[in-house]
């Protein structure tokens, strides 16, 4: 049992907030701070730094934070930063393969607006794209070379171009280095002792009398993976929502299921909503799911007699399960479910090589040439439980592997058929009629005989940048002075190959369970009797490849336009040309859908080109005047001409102001219009499948308060048999398949951003800096899957909101007429569309206080630093349908299948660091605010009655505070050691049932899934 004490971690925040006051009581007055320490780093602009603060809010993470936090993967550090939200599908805990998208990558999600709506730069220039979605893999950026990370939190399209809806993340790398440096890092989690090891070597030096400098850096990282079975504890068994006896209820483990009589609720039956074991009904011995209930209107006398003879007169709507021999069959119970969890990775293995080279040479005072070369190779693996074949198949009624009693059951099912039925499995469609000796059997078989599913991805990126920069002569004494230019060319190429094993061909499987020429079928799916020869007849390996290329050519000119009494008018102008291309190439199995085990997708290929001209200016209005130490106005524009017909020519702009009434206080404000052009995946993505967790409103998983007559009637109208509405058979597992894909008619997204803030750096308290900023981002014509939130939004809009069988949302849902389950071939269609809007607003608060004391653990002159960074999210509202603006999903303070990753109102970090002589000690607290599940929060925001909290399983997540400790020691100027513990108190993540994202019984991308982690770093400079 892990420690659950939280008093220490909660107290750390109070300690850090109060220690500033204690500093005034130190024995010696603090040393005067360098005025530059009180200046926010300027980014989000191309204008010269003349002591102004940027009107756009900026968050800065420096190399010291990377060191003390034990960062090996940059996305882990940034996800701790409150402006970022975890990205479950592109993270170390993803363990998933998205059809048509790169695998094993890590992307950033700024302001919870998605990975495609922020722009990643390296040294101010666009980096490589990973695939059809044009995102950047953060794994390819070398941690050891990072000097600082600047995040512009707000739209910046006028300055940087498309994609900068939520902001820009600029990684500033060390590109001027002398000497050699080796850094070795290690990380281990306490529960499994699984290591992550990395080593960095950086060498560099000047040449030709310091006219030039060259740097080479190489990194190797090996992250070992672990399964949920390895981790144990909260991670297994797999859990879902259910009704349990009050005595057995537990917030963290499965209770004893309680059967609720018809017409009663869990509470009225004396039970309590709680966690129950939740496996897949596709089991290793095989389950038949479409048998009519004994004595029901769906049966007849002959079939009843056959079922009674086979011992199936007491089956439920979940059907019947075989024993291991396949000769004995009995009613299926939820205790028979197969747990997918133990064999699945909770942390995916990764091996990464990264090499970077930088060089520059000063030809003269007017020209400096520079180059950046990058190569990285990243291999990552995904492992999940064995594949299952779960669909309607044709089976010979005289199948020799079945008992005579079951042969008779199949014969009666065959005789009950009416007309001609067509059964499609993969690339093959077969027909059957009554009495032809073929029965339609909803057969669900977990293929443990074939082994676990395993996907190996090999991902390589090459990028080169060539540039020339320098200064130009003044045009005149008064106009166009202090001119500087920068022009460069970039070319990047990313390739990925993926090998997938453990799948089966659905068409081969169908043929293998049928008699061919009167011979016994090759494969016996009943029981556990699949021979190696039978497995070889149906097992397949699948392959896919991704290519992504991006070229850019840009030129920029900056300088002083002319002088005003308050100072120079600074300007920047330039042109840019970008071309991007991407291709996804699946093999025949994946492209045809003839695969069970991995998500299928059709090929994707497309390109886009944009030509741009941009300009920016800052006009000083007042300087050194009463109540106006500085007052300036700034503005920017960009004209972008796309070759995408549905986008065409678009304009973006910004206008801002900064006012410093007194030297210690600056106010800033800015309004911006930004755009994001659709990427290749959104435009041309081939249709494919994936299977997220979701709740079918026509199943028993629908909250009892929403199992209304209107929903029941709609379920029947959309294909659910009347007797199965709100039954567990309609959704026997947590996962529902959706069809995703592109739409070439998409137009660009448009956003408007407003930021207003203040920076306070009082001279009376040297070393203190505080800032507060308000942000508001409104996005229109948002590109997303149909419904705005994927499969769950489509289901909710159809059944719980619009409630019209003829709506586009209801028509997007396809059901099996026999079982009512969402089924092939179209499942739920959630292809791309300009679906609606997003609106978010809130406040960023940050503070820094650095001071010195005359005492310390290692002698006098001890330096102290207190840093804190917080975000308060006031609103995060998704409008799924632009034409229905009153239907909104208000997601702040919630998590779940519609809203996704947690969006707490408050999220923040606070760090206290002491440097005393050669010793460094640091403590950090990470805070994530309390949350409530979205199927309670969303109805409240929509003005409808939500289900009562007591009828939901674990509907709330309490506030979390994690405590991290770090110590460092400089043995010499050349050798230093840093070691620390992340999650010192070994806090388990919240344990959830059906609201988990997407598995692991929790939300592993947001909360620490591995408990206490230990890390060290040894740095040697030569």
Fold and architecture overview:
- The chain is mainly beta and 1022 residues long.
- Helix content is 11%, strand content 44%.
What are the SSEs and their pairings?
Layout: H1 7-23, E1 58-62, H2 63-68, H3 74-80, E2 118-122, E3 125-126, E4 146-152, H4 157-160, E5 167-173, E6 179-189, E7 195-207, E8 212-223, E9 226-227, H5 228-231, E10 239-245, E11 271-277, E12 287-288, H6 301-309, E13 320-322, E14 329-331, E15 345-347, E16 350-364, E17 367-384, E18 388-396, H7 404-416, E19 420-425, E20 428-433, E21 438-446, E22 453-471, E23 479-504, H8 506-512, H9 532-538, E24 539-564, E25 567-586, H10 588-592, E26 604-625, E27 628-642, E28 649-662, E29 665-676, H11 680-684, E30 688-690, H12 709-717, E31 738-740, E32 749-760, E33 768-785, H13 791-802, H14 808-811, E34 828-829, E35 832-853, E36 862-879, E37 889-890, E38 894-896, E39 900-903, E40 906-916, E41 919-928, E42 931-933, H15 934-941, E43 956-957, E44 960-970, E45 975-982, E46 1013-1021
Parallel strand pairs: 2-5, 31-34, 38-42
Antiparallel strand pairs: 1-4, 2-3, 4-5, 6-7, 6-46, 7-8, 8-16, 9-15, 10-11, 12-13, 12-21, 13-14, 16-17, 17-22, 18-21, 19-20, 22-23, 23-24, 24-25, 25-26, 26-27, 27-28, 28-29, 29-32, 30-31, 32-33, 33-35, 35-36, 36-37, 36-40, 38-39, 40-41, 41-44, 42-43, 44-45, 45-46
Helix pairs in contact: 6-7
Major beta sheet summary:
22 strands, antiparallel, barrel
Rounded mean pLDDT is: 90
C-alpha geometry: elongated
Distance between the termini: 46 Å
| Helix-and-strand structural type | mainly beta
- pLDDT < 50 runs, ≥5 residues: 1-42
Binned strand content: 35-45%
């Amino acid at each position: 049992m892990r420690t659950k004490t939280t008093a220490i971690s909660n107290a750390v925040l109070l300690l850090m907030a109060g220690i500033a006051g204690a500093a005034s009581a130190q024995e010696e007055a603090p040393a005067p701070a360098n005025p530059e320490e009180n200046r926010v780093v300027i980014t989000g602009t191309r204008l010269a730094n003349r002591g102004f603060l940027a009107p756009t809010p900026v968050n800065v993470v420096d190399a010291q934070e990377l060191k003390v936090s034990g960062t090996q993967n940059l996305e882990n550090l940034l996800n701790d930063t409150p402006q970022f939200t975890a990205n479950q599908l592109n993270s170390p805990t993803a363990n998933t393969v998205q059809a048509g998208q790169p695998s094993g990558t890590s992307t950033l999600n700024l302001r919870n607006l998605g990975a495609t709506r922020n722009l990643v730069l390296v040294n101010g220039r666009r980096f490589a794209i990973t695939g059809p979605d044009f995102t950047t893999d953060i794994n390819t950026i070398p941690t050891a070379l990072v000097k600082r990370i600047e995040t512009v939190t707000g739209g910046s399209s006028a300055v940087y171009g498309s994609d900068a809806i939520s902001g820009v993340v600029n990684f500033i790398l060390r590109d001027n280095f002398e000497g050699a440096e080796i850094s070795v890092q290690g990380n281990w989690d306490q529960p499994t002792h699984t290591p992550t090891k990395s080593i960095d070597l950086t060498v560099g030096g000047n040449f030709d009398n310091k006219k030039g400098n060259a740097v080479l850096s190489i990194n190797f990282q090996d992250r070992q993976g672990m399964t949920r079975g390895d981790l144990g504890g909260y991670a297994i068994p797999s859990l879902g929502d259910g009704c349990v006896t009050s005595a057995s209820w537990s917030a963290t483990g499965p209770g004893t299921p309680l059967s609720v009589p018809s017409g009663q609720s869990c509470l009225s039956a004396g039970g309590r909503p709680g966690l129950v074991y939740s496996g897949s009904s596709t089991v290793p011995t095989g389950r038949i799911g479409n048998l009519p209930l004994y004595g029901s209107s769906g049966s007849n006398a002959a079939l009843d007699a056959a079922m009674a003879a086979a011992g199936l007169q007491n089956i439920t709507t979940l059907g019947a399960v075989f024993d291991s021999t396949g000769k004995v069959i009995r009613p299926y119970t939820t205790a028979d479910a197969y747990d997918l969890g133990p064999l699945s990775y909770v942390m995916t293995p990764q091996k990464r090589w990264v090499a970077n080279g930088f060089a520059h040479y000063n030809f003269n005072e007017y020209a400096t040439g520079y180059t950046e070369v990058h190569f990285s190779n990243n291999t990552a693996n995904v492992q999940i439980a064995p594949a299952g074949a779960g669909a309607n198949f044709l089976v010979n009624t005289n199948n020799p592997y079945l008992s005579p009693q079951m042969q008779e059951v199949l014969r009666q099912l065959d005789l009950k058929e009416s007309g001609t039925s067509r059964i499609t499995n993969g690339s093959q469609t077969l027909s059957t009629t009554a009495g032809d000796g073929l029965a339609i059997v909803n057969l669900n078989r977990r293929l443990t005989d074939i082994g676990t599913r395993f996907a190996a991805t090999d991902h390589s990126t090459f990028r080169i940048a060539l540039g020339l920069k320098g200064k130009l002569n003044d045009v005149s004494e008064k106009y166009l002075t202090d001119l500087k230019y920068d022009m460069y060319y970039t070319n990047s190429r990313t390739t990925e190959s993926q090998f997938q094993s453990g799948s089966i061909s659905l068409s081969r499987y169908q043929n293998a369970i049928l008699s061919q020429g009167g011979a016994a079928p090759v494969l016996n799916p009943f029981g556990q009797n699949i021979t190696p020869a039978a497995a070889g007849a149906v097992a397949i390996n699948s392959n896919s490849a991704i290519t992504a290329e991006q070229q850019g050519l840009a030129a920029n000119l900056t300088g002083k336009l002319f002088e005003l009494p308050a100072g120079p008018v600074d300007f920047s102008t330039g042109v840019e040309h970008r071309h991007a291309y991407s291709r996804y190439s699946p093999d025949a199995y994946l492209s045809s859908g003839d695969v069970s085990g991995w998500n299928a997708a059709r090929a994707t290929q497309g390109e886009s080109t944009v030509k741009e001209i941009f300009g920016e200016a800052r006009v000083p209005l007042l300087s050194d005047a009463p109540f106006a130490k500085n007052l300036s106005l700034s503005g920017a524009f960009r004209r972008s001409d796309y070759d995408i017909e549905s986008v065409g020519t678009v304009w973006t702009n910004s206008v801002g102001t900064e006012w410093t009434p007194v030297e210690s206080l600056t106010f800033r404000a800015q309004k911006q219009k930004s755009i994001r052009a659709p990427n290749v995946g959104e435009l041309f993505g081939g249709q494919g499948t994936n299977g997220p967790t979701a709740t079918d409103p026509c199943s028993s998983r629908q909250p009892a308060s929403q199992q209304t007559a209107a929903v029941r009637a709609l379920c029947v109208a959309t294909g659910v048999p009347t007797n199965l509405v709100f039954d567990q058979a309609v959704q026997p597992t947590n996962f529902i398949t959706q069809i995703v894909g592109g739409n070439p008619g998409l137009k660009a997204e448009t956003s408007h951003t407003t930021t207003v803030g203040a920076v306070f750096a009082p001279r009376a308290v040297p070393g203190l800096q505080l800032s507060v900023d308000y942000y508001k981002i409104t996005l229109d014509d948002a590109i997303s899957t149909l419904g705005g939130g994927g499969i769950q939004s489509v289901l909710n809009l159809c059944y719980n909101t619009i409630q019209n069988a003829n709506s586009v949302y209801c028509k997007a849902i396809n059901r099996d007429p026999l079982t009512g389950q969402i089924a092939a071939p179209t499942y739920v269609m959630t292809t791309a569309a300009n679906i609606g809007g997003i609106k978010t607003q809130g406040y960023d608060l940050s503070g820094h206080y650095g001071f010195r004391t005359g005492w310390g653990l290692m002698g006098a002159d001890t330096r102290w630093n207190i840093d804190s960074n917080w975000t308060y999210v006031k609103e995060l509202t998704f409008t799924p349908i632009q034409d229905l603006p009153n239907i909104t999903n208000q997601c702040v303070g919630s998590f779940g299948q519609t809203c996704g990753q947690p969006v707490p109102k408050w999220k923040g970090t606070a760090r206290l660091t002491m440097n005393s002589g050669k010793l460094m000690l640091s403590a950090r607290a990470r805070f994530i605010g309390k949350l409530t599940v979205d199927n309670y929060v969303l109805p409240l925001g929509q003005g409808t009655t939500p289900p009562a909290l007591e009828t939901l399983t674990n509907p709330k997540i309490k506030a979390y505070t994690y405590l991290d400790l770090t110590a460092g020691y400089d043995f010499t100027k050349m050798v230093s050691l840093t070691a620390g513990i992340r999650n010192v108190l070994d806090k388990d993540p919240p344990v959830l049932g059906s609201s988990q994202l997407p598995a692991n019984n929790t939300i592993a991308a947001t909360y620490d899934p591995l408990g206490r982690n230990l890390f060290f770093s040894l740095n040697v400079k030569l």
